[in-house]
Amino acid sequence: MTRAQLVEQIRQKQSYLCVGLDSDITKIPAHLLTEADPVLAFNKAIIDATRKYCVSYKINTAFYESMGVKGWQTLEDTVKYIGTSHFTIADAKRGDIGNTSDQYAKAFFEALPFDSVTVAPYMGEDSVRPFLQHPGKWAIVLGLTSNKGAQDFELKQAGDGLLYEQVLKTVSTWGSPENTMFVVGATQADSFINIRKLTPEHFYLVPGVGAQGGSLKEISEKAMNKDCGILVNASRAIIFASSGTDFAERAGDVAKGYQEEMSQYLAMAGL
């Protein structure tokens, strides 16, 4: 999906919601465990209930890889079920020497039909660039994350700025706003104004809203650009809104609530 197509989806749906399919088999409703593929049945129901309220789905590959070959099949079946109407993210946090990253890119962009993959940039340019060489595909590079461990490296002084600032400035020269996004955690809302100054045109993937306590209002006010420029991810707050037979209905209700709030912020921004 191109940037223009993504922006059009945001405008049409009046939403910049990304639903995270962190589908932990130990947390899905018990009545689904008799299905041939419980996680796929869960995912399909969540997708059907939320697709009109969101523009993107983020699949955390760890929850699928942990189930071995069967999990990889569920991963493939899920991304294909989503189809081409939504921006799909393989949240895999890959990154290695050039020829290895090239194989990771082929895995998610050719063997699997993802639009984007999350990438760890700390091995440098040759570990990121292979993900930028596929037309219509995106690298979503870790910038300033929402976890406690961000203090350990990302927020350390590095030269004339913080390490995450150096990452943003450097990585933004390797690609363009047409194929590069950054992960910026919702719990880092106070940093968004500075981050937007460093990367004014780029999109951000923003996890941490909902279960992690990030403020949608604060993020929207501080991080939007002329094209919206943010995809706000909510996972547990949506997909585990209920553990009963009404799980999909409740997920749809929560997603609708996010969409309705987002439409207000888009209107305020003239979008």
Structural class: alpha/beta
Identify the CATH class.
Alpha Beta
Please indicate the count of domains.
1
Which strand order do you get reading across the main beta sheet?
1-2-3-4-5-8-9-10
How much is the radius of gyration in Å?
18 Å
Examine the coordinates and then state which fold CATH places here, giving the name of the CATH topology: TIM Barrel
Tally of extended strands?
Answer: 10
Give the helix level as a range of percent. 40-55%
Overall outline: globular
* Average residue-wise pLDDT: 95
CATH homology group: Aldolase class I
**Total helix count?**
11
Portion in strands: 15-25%
List unreliable stretches of 5+ residues: none
CATH architecture: Alpha-Beta Barrel
Describe the structure.
By secondary structure, this protein is α/β, with parallel strands linked by helices. The chain has a single domain, classed as TIM Barrel, CATH 3.20.20.70. It contains 11 helices and 10 strands. Strand 3 (87-94), helix 5 and strand 4 form a beta-alpha-beta unit. The radius of gyration is 18 Å and the shape is globular.
